[in-house]
Design brief:
There is one protein chain. By secondary structure, the protein is mainly β. The chain has strands at residues 5-7, 10-13, 18-23, 33-39, 46-51, 58-60, 68-73, 78-83, 92-99, 117-118, 122-127.
Length: 128
């Protein structure tokens, strides 16, 4: 069992910034692809950004390109999502996820089915 823990969510005004972090106490995920998703009540969980194991391949949803940055520090066993120029429509619960597949590690993945473990989520609220 892998437990992922997100932190860094909160409430911010439009135009502001937040940095989300994801850690896995006692486990290492430096060899695996990871991603950030978000979900609004009543809607499906959707991809925000994803990265290969080493950050060489990265994906962003069109809605966040140029504003969000996904990066990882494998030495610290941590995944991050830097969110700048936040908009009210970015309001959601944000989840990190890991794909425990060496086959998948060299690319990014955008489907929820591609991932094996998820964090509990962290709320991001952007007010206008």
């Amino acid at each position: 069992q892998v437990q992922l823990v997100e932190s860094g969510g909160g409430q911010v005004q439009a135009g502001g910034s937040l940095r989300l972090s994801c850690a896995a106490p006692g486990r290492t995920f430096s060899s695996f692809a990871m991603g950030w998703f978000r979900q609004v009540p009543g809607q499906e969980r959707v991809i925000v950004a994803a990265t290969s194991w080493n950050g060489a391949k990265i994906y962003y949803a069109d809605s966040v390109k140029g504003r969000f940055t996904i990066f990882r520090d494998n030495a610290k066993n941590a995944l991050y999502l830097q969110m700048d120029s936040l908009k009210p429509e970015d309001t959601a619960v944000y989840y990190c996820a890991v794909s425990l597949s060496y086959y998948n590690a060299n690319s990014y993945h955008t489907g929820t089915d591609d991932y094996d473990y998820w964090g509990q989520g962290t709320q991001v609220t952007v007010s206008s």
